[in-house]
Amino acid sequence: MTGKGNVTAISGSDTVEVYLTEEQIRAKVAELGRRIEKDYADKDLFVVAVLRGAIFFACDLVRAIDLPLVLDFVQISSYADGTESTGRAKITKELDLSIKDKDVLVVEDIADTRHTLHNLLSFLRSKFPRSIRVCALLNKEERKEREIPLDYVGFEIENLFVIGYGLDYAQRYRNLPFVGVLRLSDGEILS
Ligand code: IMP
Ligand code: MG
């Protein structure tokens, strides 16, 4: 297993420094699962996982929640191929199932400016769920531009561009089993 701070070559001379280990992620997912399980024991839990970044997290998280639940996916894109938020978002994959009167838990990989969450929550509210809460694996509090409350947060992180465990840089590196900080071949660290 790759330890925190270890640096690994991932592509050409790009490298990634481990920021959150597989072990840390696994322990956090288990802890979040237990909290959600308690909070939703007498509710009608409907998990909305946000494609594509949140799929690894969502798949692990739902397996840590021992409750009957429904899982569906939505895709919203606010980023082009790079790292800059545009502030705009569009639903590129609709939910397949109805969330009317359900207790919706949105599962996101990361809360950055929160524009994506803002747009996603207005879209979901228009479908009359009974309640909506948000669970984000990572939060960059420093980057927040919208007052969208996060009900469950895995890790508060610094203002760094991270990859792995679902998170991409230009669609790559989602399959790294840990969360890392990308260093490009010219030594640049993205943020
Ligand atoms: P927001 O709308 O600025 O909150 O952006 C949220 C989305 O931007 C996330 O769902 C990610 O897809 C992407 N994103 C934000 N920060 C990072 C990062 O550090 N690495 C990879 N993707 C990121
Ligand atoms: Mg995303």
Tally the structural domains: 1
Widest beta sheet: strand line-up: 5-4-3-6-7-8
Element pattern in H and E: EEHEHEEEHEEEE
Bound molecules: inosinic acid, magnesium ion
What is the 3D shape? globular
For the biggest sheet, the summary is: 6 strands, mixed
Q: Ranges with pLDDT <50 over ≥5 residues?
A: none
Number of helices: 3
Separation of the first and last Cα atoms: 26 Å
Task: Tell me the CATH architecture.
Answer: 3-Layer(aba) Sandwich
3D architecture notes:
The model has no long low-confidence stretch (mean pLDDT 91). This protein has a single domain, classed as 3-Layer(aba) Sandwich (Rossmann fold), CATH 3.40.50.2020. The chain is globular. 20% of the residues lie in helices and 36% in strands. The strands form two sheets. Strands 5-4-3-6-7-8 form a six-stranded mixed sheet, sandwiched between helices. A four-stranded antiparallel sheet has the order 1-2-10-9. α2 links the parallel β3 and β4. With 191 residues, it is of the alpha/beta class. It binds inosinic acid (IMP) and magnesium ion. The site of magnesium ion (MG) has 3 residues, from loops.
